[in-house]
Design brief:
Keywords: Membrane, Transmembrane, Transmembrane helix. This protein is an all-alpha fold. The protein contains 7 helices and no strands.
């Protein structure tokens, strides 16, 4: 009996330490909606390109600027939705939405994202935009893997998939658009549903 109680105490301490070092209130629903936003944004981008006179992009063209705005809006709505739903879930769980664990999560997520974003801007300025979709997928995947140490560990699997899709995209740049849709749209929705039923519904 004493041995079982001792093991249970150790397990409780381990769980408490994990909760104190990880931000576990990420919302699965926000992942689903981020995927939906990405699919809508991709559809708009596809229509912009196919309806344009050139049917291809130039960096200083109107269509390219509109696609940048489209990407910005997808990211903006995804971030706002994630903040709102995650804050609501944290309050429901009796946790703080902004504490040391959430700060570590954001910092570790943003390091690869900022580095990747700056690198993409550099190669775009050099008019080397054939690998843009691949780089977005790879750096986003790295950000997820890096942040998983401070959140739900399952997000690293989404990160691995994004990295793999990015590498495939680098090999097959002609399919960059569709692989981007698969990574940021379809995979987010699948991941969101899995996380929703595993954590949010529990």
């Amino acid at each position: 009996m004493d041995s079982n109680k001792y093991l249970k105490d150790i397990s409780d301490i381990k769980d408490l330490m994990q909760k104190s070092s990880r931000f576990i209130s990420l919302s699965g629903l926000s992942g689903i909606l981020a995927g939906v936003y990405a699919l809508i944004g991709a559809a708009i981008a596809y229509l912009l390109v196919t309806k344009s006179a050139r049917q291809y992009l130039i960096l200083d063209g109107y269509t390219f600027r509109m696609i940048l705005l489209d990407l910005f809006l997808v990211a903006f709505f995804s971030i706002v939705t994630a903040i709102f739903l995650t804050t609501r879930k944290a309050k429901k769980n009796g946790e703080k939405a902004w504490d040391s664990s959430s700060r570590r999560l954001i910092v570790n997520f943003m390091i690869p994202m900022v580095a990747g974003g700056l690198y993409i801007l550099i190669i775009l300025d050099q008019q080397k935009y054939g690998q843009t979709a691949a780089l977005m997928l790879i750096f986003y995947g790295l950000a997820l893997v890096n942040a998983s140490k401070y959140s739900i560990g399952d997000i690293r699997y989404l990160g691995y998939i994004e990295i793999l899709l990015g590498l495939v995209c680098a090999l097959l740049p002609g399919y960059g658009f569709w692989l981007w849709v698969a990574g940021f749209g379809v995979m987010h929705i699948i991941y969101g549903f899995l996380m929703y039923y595993k954590y949010d519904k529990a």
